[in-house]
Specification:
This protein has three helices and five strands. By secondary structure, it is α/β, with parallel strands linked by helices. It has a five-stranded mixed β-sheet with strand order 2-1-5-3-4, covered by helices on one side.
Length: about 210
């Protein structure tokens, strides 16, 4: 059942105008436009992104290649320096060995040096006891006799010219003999000097 309403100002539409001025006629392309925009813009955006990536990739590869080549060049340089350091440059100041000369004579061995003097085992040796130990001189006289000396006497000292055990010899000719006597007695102090109690004799003076 339809209802009717009285006519009003909106019902007076001039001829040639669309009926129902409350509603605008919809464009039939309006729903299609968004899809067309998507179909056009998406490929354009994809092409732009691909172009940027292609421009940036070669620069990144070149930078990586340069960074890899620098360490290799640094490694080659020490190797070259090491090769140069291994080269031995002969010194002109160092004498070089002369080639073998058939006519050259080999170095003769050095002749043995003769001792400054010979030991006289028949020389007079007097052992003086400067201590209060009884038989001290006889004990050391035994050491000297056992070394091969044949003219050894032992007695007590009446003078004390030094405060350490000493072997005195009157002249330079008896130096080697005095040193042999000192070695037999275990004394290191050997002095060239005459001794009043035994002139002309090698004296072993014992004080300690």
């Amino acid at each position: 059942m339809s209802e009717t309403y009285p006519r009003d100002d909106f019902d007076g539409v001039p001829e040639g105008n669309p009926v129902g001025v409350h509603r605008r006629t919809r464009n039939p392309w309006a729903p299609v436009v968004p899809f067309l925009l998507v179909l056009v813009l998406v490929p354009l955006l994809a092409w732009g992104v691909a172009t940027l990536i292609q421009r940036n990739v070669p620069q990144a590869e070149v930078g990586a290649a340069q960074s890899q080549s620098q360490p290799q060049s640094q490694q080659v340089q020490p190797t070259t320096d090491q090769a140069q350091s291994d080269v031995v440059i002969p010194d002109s100041n160092v004498p070089t060995a002369a080639p073998d000369d058939p006519g050259a004579t080999p170095d003769e061995p050095a002749e043995p040096t003769e001792p400054e003097g010979t030991v006289d085992f028949a020389a007079a040796v007097t052992v003086l006891n400067g201590t209060t130990i009884s038989g001290y001189a006889a004990e050391f006289a035994g050491y000297v006799t056992n070394a091969g000396f044949t003219n050894v006497t032992a007695t007590n000292a009446s003078t004390w010219p030094t405060d350490q055990n000493t072997v005195f010899y009157p002249s330079a000719e008896l130096r080697a003999t005095a040193e042999a006597v000192a070695a037999a007695a275990g004394i290191t102090n050997v002095v060239e000097s005459g001794f009043e109690e035994a002139p002309g004799s090698i004296v072993v003076f014992l004080i300690n």
